[in-house]
């Protein structure tokens, strides 16, 4: 095993050169380095800068430096609240105006509203007959029932109905039945005064409705729909 002295002797020239280089770099001439203090900078006062005058923007209550601003804080606070409240009121009013105009622009026009209603003269429909009208793109059935039909439909047992509904709950005037002519199964148009119950019959899939528009037989799940209507007088009905 090589001794420490042998290894030192082999690399001695390199160690010497390193030592010489280190001495020349760090300690030239074998003397210690002495730190030399750098001269301190001189700070100048810029007395030529003009300070802005904000007196025009200050309230008269706080311009006097000898008075405390707390003495006028209540009045200044009230003024701030007044400005904030006024701004809020104006903002709410503006928002209300914008929303009102937006909603009004989406509402139906007068001609559209006119088409959404239909006025029917009942004197033109004889007793026992059904007349079909077109309303909102759908067939509308208006039926003038006889006394026998009224009594028959009023006596129906609700437990026998698929969609239980009493006849008096479907009419405003027992003489008149007003329903949409759209089958509740798949939307076909039923035939009036037909079927096993003398009301309406759907030829598409065989649904039978009575003279009150209630489903009695077939695949339809619900009764014929009753739209909103009213009687302005005894001879007129307005649907819609």
TrEMBL record:
InterPro entries: bc1_Rieske_TM_sf, Rieske_2Fe-2S, Rieske_2Fe-2S_sf, Rieske_Fe-S_prot, Rieske_Fe-S_prot_C, Rieske_TM, Ubiquinol_cyt_c_Rdtase_Fe-S-su
Compartment(s): Membrane; Mitochondrion inner membrane
GO molecular function: 2 iron, 2 sulfur cluster binding; metal ion binding; quinol-cytochrome-c reductase activity
A GO cellular-component term linked to this record: mitochondrial inner membrane
EC numbers: 7.1.1.8
Enzyme class label: translocase
Reaction(s) the record says it catalyses: a quinol + 2 Fe(III)-[cytochrome c](out) = a quinone + 2 Fe(II)-[cytochrome c](out) + 2 H(+)(out)
Cofactors that this protein relies on: [2Fe-2S] cluster
Co-factor note (free text): Binds 1 [2Fe-2S] cluster per subunit.
Domain Rieske: 153-238
Membrane topology: Single-pass membrane protein
Keywords, in A-Z order: 2Fe-2S, Disulfide bond, Electron transport, Iron, Iron-sulfur, Membrane, Metal-binding, Mitochondrion, Respiratory chain, Transmembrane, Transmembrane helix, Transport
Superkingdom of origin: Eukaryota
Family stated for the protein in its record: Belongs to the Rieske iron-sulfur protein family.
Miscellaneous notes: The Rieske protein is a high potential 2Fe-2S protein.
Protein name: Cytochrome b-c1 complex subunit Rieske, mitochondrial
Organism of origin: Parambassis ranga
GN (gene name): LOC114437236
